[in-house]
Amino acid sequence: MSDEQWALIEPLVTAWKQERVARSTTGDPGSCDLREVVNALLYQNRTACQWRLLPHDLPDWSAVFYYFTLWRQDGLDQRIQEILRCQVRERSRRLEDPSLVIIDTQSVRVAAGVPKETAGLDVNKKTPGRKRGLAVDVLGPTIGVVVLAASVHDNEAGIALLDQAAERCGMRLEKVLVDQGFKDAVIIHGAVKDITGEVVRRNPDDEGEGFVPQPKRWVVEQVNGTLMPPRRLARDYDHRPDDAASRLYRASTAGMRRRPTPLHPPGGTTWSRPRERQRTPAAAADRTR
């Protein structure tokens, strides 16, 4: 990471470390350079190397794995991604919470050591492995992530993503777009939460034309494409689905840090966690002022 990119997330990592030290029984802050730990995780995401094969100029693999596990358990990756997502929208002169969310799933193969109970077979796509679902807004930043066995129906992933989007976007979320693989269960679940669900169907005139981008829904397809260059995401190597979800958040964060529109570090404010967003009329009125 460059100095500018590290400045975006350093306050969040520092706040997490201070909170962790305060809860520790020894109060020892440790001597590991957390910036180098982040660099090691980004390197592994990009190259898909094994933990023990991390370069020697990076921290010891056991220390990197230790912080990877702690950050996954404490949800730090998700909090960093959520704050940068809000900044991306604000820099684009939009409200921080979107009114439209696009949901899609993608089936990927798994490595040989992945437990069978966390994997399956996607019958429609003939892909053995896992199914990862994404909820994104029209600008591309990720709002929700879920990783399931490939044999699980899209409806289960869609319902979980809809719950995440409703929690993180609050009352402002009005509509969700899905493809034809999702059935009525997602639409009904959205209606219960006062969210309109719409299935984007292919134009019959496009039959035989190959891949034709669908209006607005093409954004999530583009995001799925950006997850393929990191070799750790091209195939799922993680034994735990929540580890795989953490890597997706980290890949989304790396993409937002590289955007041409510069973001700003949250200076002067202790951003230990995102603001609580509740789906109440009062909260919605505050965001529109």
Please explain how this structure is put together.
The protein has helices at 3-23, 34-47, 61-74, 76-91, 154-169, 184-192, 218-226, 231-234, 241-257, 281-287, and strands spanning 100-108, 120-122, 127-136, 142-149, 175-178, 196-199. By secondary structure, it is α/β, with parallel strands linked by helices. The protein has one domain: Nucleotidyltransferase, domain 5.
What is the strand and helix layout of this fold?
Elements: H1 3-23, H2 34-47, H3 61-74, H4 76-91, E1 100-108, E2 120-122, E3 127-136, E4 142-149, H5 154-169, E5 175-178, H6 184-192, E6 196-199, H7 218-226, H8 231-234, H9 241-257, H10 281-287
Parallel strand pairs: 1-5, 5-6
Antiparallel strand pairs: 1-3, 2-3, 3-4
Helix pairs in contact: 1-4, 2-3, 4-9, 5-6
Taken together, the total number of domains comes to 1
Q: What amount of the residues lies in strands?
A: 5-15%
Q: What oligomeric arrangement do these chains adopt?
A: single chain
Uncertain spans: 268-279, 281-289
Helix coverage percent: 40-55%
Fourth-level CATH superfamily: Ribonuclease H-like superfamily/Ribonuclease H
Quantity of strands, as a count: 6
Computed over alpha carbons, the radius of gyration is 20 Å
Count of alpha and pi helical runs? 10
Helix and strand composition category: alpha/beta
Q: Encode the helix/strand succession as letters.
A: HHHHEEEEHEHEHHHH
Which CATH class is shown? Alpha Beta
What name is given to the CATH topology?
Nucleotidyltransferase, domain 5
Keywords, separated by commas or semicolons:
alpha/beta; Nucleotidyltransferase, domain 5; 6-stranded mixed beta sheet; 13% strand; 10 helices; 289 residues
